[in-house]
Design a protein that fits this description.
Helix content is 19%, strand content 44%. With 208 residues, it is of the alpha+beta class. Helix 1 (17-28) runs parallel beside helix 4 (180-186).
Length: 208
């Protein structure tokens, strides 16, 4: 594994019209198989400076997604951690909303897989400020995407002892980052509709 820290915009190779149309036809034909996102671990830890989240997500891609990735179409994932204070008299109050973005792309020249991670959306027109890692296989890259360790999701000042607070965690494939033609074909296709959600009562952790 090789690690690189990117601080400047890089242009990604665009897919040819033939490739995009071919993938769109595959989507329109309804090609698909069992796939999904499984959350095998989700826990939080309260430290003096705030709340930290760790998770283990298992990703099993459908054949349409893998075909797109094999042809160097980048695929994006998003982890979202919201902390809300429940109120019986009104809608829940959002105390914290943190997101982590992942971009996985095949590099044809090196035959390796590049994973970019950032706290900001990663646009294909430029990777911006993101943390980059390279892997020899797609499986290794996806395993790295699914390992979330000590992610700070709230400062201590954002936590309110004495109130009931909930963590809403969501992990999903972000099809909105696909090329426009693929977005049209992906609409309603199960291979691209991957996600998992979980809630945790933080009352005990917040009150510590």
């Amino acid at each position: 594994m090789t690690t690189v820290f990117s601080t400047h915009c890089l242009k990604s190779a665009g897919a040819s019209l033939v490739l995009v149309l071919g993938l769109w036809l595959a989507l329109a034909a309804g090609v698909g198989a069992a796939q999904g996102v499984q959350l095998s671990e989700l826990r939080v830890q309260r430290d003096d400076d705030g709340l930290y989240l760790s998770a283990q997500v298992h990703l099993e891609l459908g054949p349409v997604v893998e075909e797109a990735m094999d042809k160097a179409i980048p695929v994006h994932f998003v982890a979202d951690a919201q902390i809300v204070r429940e109120r019986w008299y009104w809608s829940d109050e959002k105390l914290s909303d943190e997101k982590r973005y992942f971009r996985v792309a095949f590099q044809p020249l090196t035959r390796r897989w590049r994973l970019n991670t950032s706290n900001q959306p990663i646009l294909d027109s430029g990777l911006g400020v993101s943390y980059s890692q390279f892997y020899d296989s797609l499986g290794e890259a996806l395993s790295a995407v699914g390992r979330i360790s000590r992610w700070k999701i709230a400062d201590a000042a954002e936590l309110e002892p004495g109130s009931r607070q909930m963590l809403r965690f969501r992990f999903r494939l972000d099809a909105s980052q696909l090329p426009r033609a693929l977005q049209i074909g992906a609409s309603g296709q199960s291979d691209w509709s991957m996600g998992v959600e979980r809630k945790i009562d933080l009352t005990h952790e917040v009150g510590r």
